[in-house]
User: What shape does this take?
Amino acid sequence: MVVSSSQHRRSWNEPGHAHELTFGCFHGYPFLSRERVCLWLAESLENARKSLEVSLWAYVFMPNHVHLIVHFDQSDYSIARALREIKLPVSRKALAFLRQSAPDWLPRLSQQRGNKIEYHFWQRGGGYDRNITEPETLRKMIDYIHLNPVRKGLVEQAWEWRWSSAGAYAGKNASPLQIDPIPPEWTIGMRPTS
Assistant: This one.
C-alpha cells in the first residue's frame, strides 16, 4: 500500500524490533553536505542515544537525508520521541546559524501556518520507519543504506563515505560516530556486510 504524503505514517514501537529510520532535509536541500551540520547531527544523535538508551547499529548521512538503524534497549520506547530528540537540536542550531550568517536563506525555509510563520530545517513529518525483525533483513538494510553514496555517485566504495558506518563494518576507516555491537541473536546466519 502506498501512503500519500498527506497521510500520517504509523511507527510500530514493538519491543525487540530494530528500526531503519530515514528522514530528510526540508525541500531536499543538501544541508548535510556541510561538515558543521553533520557534527551537530552526530552530537544530537549521541545525546539521544544516552537519554533514550538506544543502540546505533548503522548509519549514513547523505547530503539531503539520513538513514539510521537503531535498536532500543528498553521495551517501552517511542520512535516519535527519538526523532524529536535527534532532529530538534539540529534544527535549532541550524536556524540560529542561518539567522546570524545567512538570513537570506530563511524565506526558503518558511511556511505560513495560520497567522504564524514557521521555519523548517527537516522535512515535515516523521520520515520513514521500517521495523526489522530478522537478521537477514537487518543485513540487507545495512547493505542498502551503506551503498546509498555509491548509488548516488558520491564515492566508488561504500567505506569511502565519511559520514557512514560502512568504513567501520569494512574495517577500512574509523566511523565519525561509534556504532554499537549487534547482539549475537541478530547476526545468526548473517553474511559480512559492505
In short: The first strand starts at residue 18 and ends at 24. The longest helix spans residues 79-101.
